[in-house]
Amino acid sequence: MSFSETRTEVFQADANTKLLVYEWIPETEPKAVMIGVHGGLAHGGDWVTPALYFKEKGFATYAPDLRFHGTFDKHNPGGKVFFHINSYDDYAKDLHAFCDWVRKRHPGKPVFIISHSNGALISLYYGLTLGKQADISGFIISSPWLVNRVKVPGILKAISKVIAKVHPTFSIVPPSLTDQLTRDEKITARHHHDEEIGLRGKKVSAKLGVESEKTQAWVLENLKHWEKFPLFAVIAGNDQLADPEASHAALKTVSSKLVTIVVHPNNYHENFNEINRADIFGAIWQWMEKLL
After folding, report:
1. From 119, 152, 186, 292, which residue has the greatest number of CB atoms within 10 Å?
2. How far apart are CA 118 and CA 235, in angstroms?
3. Could you state, in order of their start, the residue ranges of all structural domains in the chain?
4. Could you report the per-residue pLDDT of 208-243, keeping only the tens digit for each?
C-alpha cells in the first residue's frame, strides 16, 4: 500500500470474513504492541502518524481495516465499502480474535489498544464486554463517538429504524465533514484522495445508525463500571462529529485511578492527525512508560 507500513497481511476474522492488516514493525524486537482501531469511513492505513512515532520508540503497530471499510471489497467477494455493521458485537468479536492473533506473534509483550471516534466506541464497548478479562495493558482513545455532535431529527431516527429492519444495508451519502477532521492540510488532501480511489467510504447505512445509537447509550450507561484497564483519553474541543462535552462528562464517571483525560480546545476531530500530534504522542508515551 502507501502508508509507510512495513508490510500488509490478511487476517481471517471468521469463516467468511477477511480483513487487511497494516503493520509497522521496528527493526529490533518490539518493546510492546499497539492495535489500532480506526473510525467510521476510514481505514487501517490512517494509523500511519502514531504508528511511525511509536515505531521509533520500539513499538509495533497492527491496524486492520474494519468490516465494510478500506479494502473490504477486495478481500470479500460481494462486499462493499461503506459505514455499516450488523451489530457492535461483530466488532467486539473481531477485535477479540485480532488481539489473540497479534499476541501469538509477540508472546509476553504488553498490548495496548489505540482507537479513534467509532473505533473508540468499539474499544470501550469491547473493554466493557468481551474483552473484560483480556490481557490488555491499556486503552488509548481519541474523540470517542459517544454522542453525535450533529443532531438528527427525531422523525429521521424513526424512519431509519423502520428502514434498518426491512433493508439494513440501505445507505445514504451524508454531508461531507472531511475538511473538518484535521487542520493539517496535507492529511486532509490525503483523505480526499482516499475517498476518490474508494479507500475511504462515503455512505452510511440505516443499520449503522440504529446500532451505533444503541451502543452509544449502552456505553454511556456502563462506563462507570470500567475496571482493570488504564485509560488515556484525548478529547478535541473543536470536534464537529463527536460531542466533546458529552465525552468528557462520560469519562469522568470512570475511576480517577484508571482514567487520564486530556482536552485540546482547538483540535478538530482527528487528534492523532492534528498539527499538535507530536505533543499528544509525547503525553501518551509518558503515560505508557509508567505502565511498562
Report:
1. 119
2. 14
3. 7-291
4. 999 999 999 999 999 999 999 999 999 999 999 999
